[in-house]
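Good day; I would like, with your permission, to put a structural problem before you. A protein sequence and the structure tokens that stand for its backbone fold form the material at issue. Thank you for your consideration; the sequence and its tokens are set out here:
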Amino acid sequence: MDIIFVRHGVPDFSLADERCMTQLEKDYAPLDRAYLSELHQKLTNAVFDDAQAIICSPYTRALQTAEILNRRHGFELFVEHDLREWRADTAGGYISLAERDRRWHEYRELLKLRLPMSDERYEHVTALKARTMAVLERYRQYDKVIVVSHFNVFEALQGYQEQGLACGDSKIFRL
């Protein structure tokens, strides 16, 4: 199965720390309107034309991105809970963006060095990959799908990425 992996558009987290939002509340953040026309442009790529379905994270930023693709192509759209973002806090409480970033950098450094992850406060890459693969296995009947999700989901599938994947960008790989 060919996968066109699309990282969601640029989210607007401007209220997150101001309102001390929990991780769950942060996941409701919409796309940043200042970047919407750039996202629309990125999603006009002909690589999407022959896909058969869109499989999407349940987070607002991914859903809005998938909706833009779906409006253009009219593919069947599936929302999958386990394509969600890496969990910076397995307890689900409030952590500041600064603490989330600190954990993210620690997580990525361990991923880069291929070292075991022992901090139980955040989700480990093995768990992230396992839940993602379980979702994708259910769509093997398709030859080519679009997956709209998060950079850390992409990295769990493809390994550490030095260059990252910008919001709205896509990569194709075979599963």
In short: The helical segments are 23-26, 36-42, 60-73, 97-113, 125-137, 151-158. The CA atoms of residues 69 and 83 lie 17 Å apart. The domain at 2-174 is CATH 3.40.50.1240 (Rossmann fold). The chain is about 35% helix and 15% strand.
